[in-house]
Design a protein that fits this description.
single chain; 5 helices
Length: 170
């Protein structure tokens, strides 16, 4: 299946990689700081923010590449139309759930900005900033699920059957 949103998935994956690199960099700086007798205030908090950003921003790309963990014990026993119908059901539920999570993550970002919510740690970071990566990552996941659902509904064929690459987790 050729994706119209491949640019979105690749962009989010690149951002995820950048934040994972920042996690490494801040952790190395914290370790070096311990040996050099200086402390990075809020370093652990920033490492957590960067790790969360990297995790959420990578969701859409990993779904599109077939790297999400799926329980296929039941699905692999189905063939033809029954398998397509069960896949449509699963994709519809996943699309609705990801839309729900995206909405509430966006609402959380908005409320944190509105009420000037800040971190309880020494960094006192406005929480809407790290929460924004969660909302963006969940939106990308929603787009990926919705795109696959629309594809399966239109063609009545599984997206993975049309690609040369099978999911590595199946």
């Amino acid at each position: 299946m050729i994706s119209r949103f491949q640019w979105l998935y690749q962009g989010l994956a690149a951002l995820a990689g950048f934040f994972i690199f920042l996690t490494l960099a801040i952790e190395i700086a914290i370790i070096v700081g311990r040996f050099a007798n200086f402390q990075i205030d809020g370093g652990d908090a920033y490492a957590g923010y960067f790790m969360a950003a990297g995790s959420f921003l990578a969701l859409a790309a990993t779904l599109r590449q077939g790297d999400h963990i799926r329980v296929t014990l039941f699905l692999q026993r189905l063939h033809g139309k029954p398998r397509v119908y069960v896949e449509i059901f699963c994709l519809a539920v996943a699309t609705l759930l990801s839309a729900y999570f995206t909405y509430y993550a966006g609402k959380l970002v908005y409320d944190s900005h509105l009420y000037h919510d800040i971190s309880q740690n020494t960094d006192a970071t406005p929480l809407w900033i790290p929460q924004l990566s969660m909302a963006i990552g969940l939106f990308g996941l929603f787009v990926a699920f919705a795109e696959e659902l629309v594809y399966v509904l239109r063609t009545r064929r599984l997206a993975k059957e049309d690609s040369d690459e099978l999911a590595r987790t199946e």
